[in-house]
Automatic annotation (TrEMBL):
Pfam family membership, one: Acetyltransf_1
Enzyme Commission (EC) number: 2.3.1.-
Keywords assigned by UniProt, alphabetized: Acyltransferase, Transferase
Entry superkingdom: Bacteria
Example of a GO MF term: acyltransferase activity
CDD domains (UniProt xref): NAT_SF
Main EC class the enzyme belongs to: transferase
Limits of the N-acetyltransferase domain: 209-353
Coiled coil region boundaries: none
Record protein name field: GNAT family N-acetyltransferase
Organism: Variovorax rhizosphaerae
Length: 370
């Protein structure tokens, strides 16, 4: 890929190909990701080398991931991960203009043009692949400042909330899980632990899609979110390979979904449980069903996975109803993620201006040395 020459270093963008990478290339990537994890997520568990390599080698049916390394004098200084809908997958045309971007630059090598080089690589990718909007997340002040500086706009704020599992109010949860009048309304429970049969999941894709798209996402401009059976097939294959459970709790009105809550447990991080979607269909809101399905799910996790010590969940800052429930349970905000979006025209403009500024700075240095 592209090479950039600075005053004393060569900066090169190079794709990382998991299926072709050599042991030394893997070793360098592992060292870099551990460094970046310690810099941005101190104290958080880090995936083992073997698990990480296995994860990257999986080919997903719906989403493609590409990794681009920024090498500063042949040392990894930064990385960019591009996630986008696989061309030719079902409904791929709806996602064609969008790409999700992750990555970062090692703190000791910032201010050397690494981020700018990665952005140039992003612009080239977007131009060549017909993408018009890139979405990225940040949770640290320097990440917010950098994304602001390139012209990206914050579109969504999310809290990651956490609670020690044994400090949840289990007596209150028991009351929530058994709301008065449930039987009178004709609702029935359906609870799954481990895996949900595919024949059960298949008819749930449409109601789950409706529920998740009815959640507040502030100003985030993304294609309609879809629940898709192929995603579950791929995810369950992952769980089978590395070990893990999927918990799903439903309240059904006949065959219709009145409320749902699900969570996942990952054997690689056995002391954690990750809460996913909690949602209630509009006709059933205001009757305590969100509390009921969340409480029943937490009770089920407690029964099946006593090793869990911490529960984690993510909530949009604008989702006042769910934040209220989590606050009553004793969840605390661990960090705030902000999702930023930038269009290709704004990215091009930033790179052009950045190039002018870099040229002016170079001329100034040369003049002072003359």
């Amino acid at each position: 890929m592209s090479s950039f020459h600075g005053r004393s270093a060569k900066l090169e963008l190079r794709p990382f190909e998991p299926l072709q990478a050599s042991p030394s290339q893997w070793q360098a990537l592992h060292a870099f990701r551990r460094l970046r994890s310690q810099e941005d997520f101190p104290g958080e568990p880090v995936m083992s080398d073997a698990d990480f390599e296995s994860e990257l080698r999986v080919v997903r049916p719906l989403v493609e991931a590409r990794r681009v390394l920024a090498l500063h004098d042949d040392v990894i200084a930064g990385i960019m991960v591009l996630n986008f809908r696989r061309h030719g997958s079902p409904d791929s045309e709806d996602y064609a203009g969008h790409v999700d971007v992750a990555g970062g630059v090692a703190r000791g090598l910032r201010k050397h043009g690494v981020g700018r080089a990665l952005l140039a690589g992003l612009a080239h990718f977007m131009e060549s692949q017909g993408k018009h909007t890139a979405t990225a997340k940040a949770h640290l002040p320097d990440g917010h400042a950098w994304l602001d500086s390139i012209g990206a706009t914050c579109k969504l704020r999310m809290f990651e909330n956490r609670s020690p599992f044994d400090q949840l109010d289990w007596q209150m949860l028991a009351r929530w899980a058994r709301p008065a009048g449930l039987d009178a309304h004709g609702l029935r429970w359906e609870v799954h632990c481990g895996r949900v049969p595919m024949e059960t999941l298949a008819p749930l894709m449409t109601p789950f899609t409706e529920l998740i798209n009815d959640q507040p996402l502030d100003g985030l401009d993304i294609p309609r979110i879809r629940y898709e059976l192929k995603d579950y097939e791929s995810w369950y294959a992952d769980l089978d390979r590395r070990g893990g459970d999927h918990f799903l709790v439903l309240l059904r009105d006949g065959e219709q979904v009145a409320a749902m809550c699900d969570a996942t447990w990952d054997a690689r991080f056995p002391d954690r449980m990750y809460q996913q979607l909690t949602a209630v269909a509009r006709p059933w809101r205001g009757q305590g069903l969100a509390k009921a399905v969340k409480a029943r799910m937490l009770e089920r996790v407690r029964q099946c996975r006593p090793e869990v010590g911490t529960v984690l969940t993510n909530n949009a800052v604008v989702n006042a109803a769910m934040l209220s429930i989590n606050n009553r349970l004793g969840f605390g905000v661990h960090k705030e993620d902000r999702s930023y979006q930038i269009d290709l025209a704004t990215l091009r403009a930033y790179l052009a201006q950045s190039q002018v500024q870099a040229g002016s700075a170079r001329d100034t240095r040369q003049s002072s040395q003359a």
